[in-house]
Amino acid sequence: MKESNKVIPIIILLMFSLSSMAQESYLEGGFGIGNVLGSTHRSGKAELHIGVFKGFPFGELGLDLSGGGNFIPGTNSIEEPGVEILSPNDVKFASVMLLYRFPLIKNIFIEPRLGYTALNVFVHTTDITKLRQDNISAGIGIGVSLDKIALSLRYQYNGETSDYEGLRDAGTVKSFSEPVSMILLRMSYHLELNKRN
Predict the structure, then answer these.
(1) C-alpha atoms less than 13 angstroms from C-alpha of 48 in its C-beta half-sphere
(2) Collapsing DSSP states into helix, strand and coil, what is residue 152?
(3) Of 187, 186, 161, whose CA–CA distance to 174 is shortest?
(4) Is 162 helix (H, G, I), strand (E, B) or coil?
């Protein structure tokens, strides 16, 4: 088993082991828009997310599931005679993250996170239809809670893309292992599950 495949069970086990200390629980879901960092990417990035949070005297722990891809459909691959070089910025992503929401002042919080991200892209070559790369990922966000709405700006390192070369028709498709980082503006709505007095 790959090291990254062990992260999900560990995250879930940690969440449930801490649940007895929780003061309240709530669901949070919404969407985010942004872009990759480090290069030009006209398509942008978008995600949908849902998570469960548990309140503690020292802050909130959350388990966050998210996934997305290009905000504008399409690819930004480089076309050369007989060769297509896939852009690492076009990957779709799916993440499972454990996060800690720490209150700063009033309704402002910071949010470090650690977990697992799968990066994938469809290639439709003679030997494979989809490239997938599993990664340990990390990020940090800063945001504000406004009643049942949370707005946050999040940086996310998603790991690296696949290193691959394959054949499609009379041409070659290549993908190089490159890091993918994003910054997303996220809007979330939360639904309270329970509250202990």
Answers:
(1) 0
(2) strand
(3) 161
(4) coil
pLDDT, tens digit (0-9, with 9 covering 90-100), for 165-194: 999 888 999 999 999 999 999 999 988 876
- Do residues 151 and 143 make contact, with C-beta atoms less than 8 angstroms apart? yes
First to last CA, the chain: 43
And the tokens for 37? 């960092």
Collapsing DSSP to helix, strand or coil, 40 comes out as coil
Helix (H) or strand (E) holding 9: helix 7-18
**One-letter identity of residue 135:** N
Residue type at 141? G
Which is nearest to 78 in space by CA: 148, 195, 178, 184?
178
Statement: residue 134 has pLDDT above 90: yes
Domains observed in the chain: 3-195 (2.40.160.20)
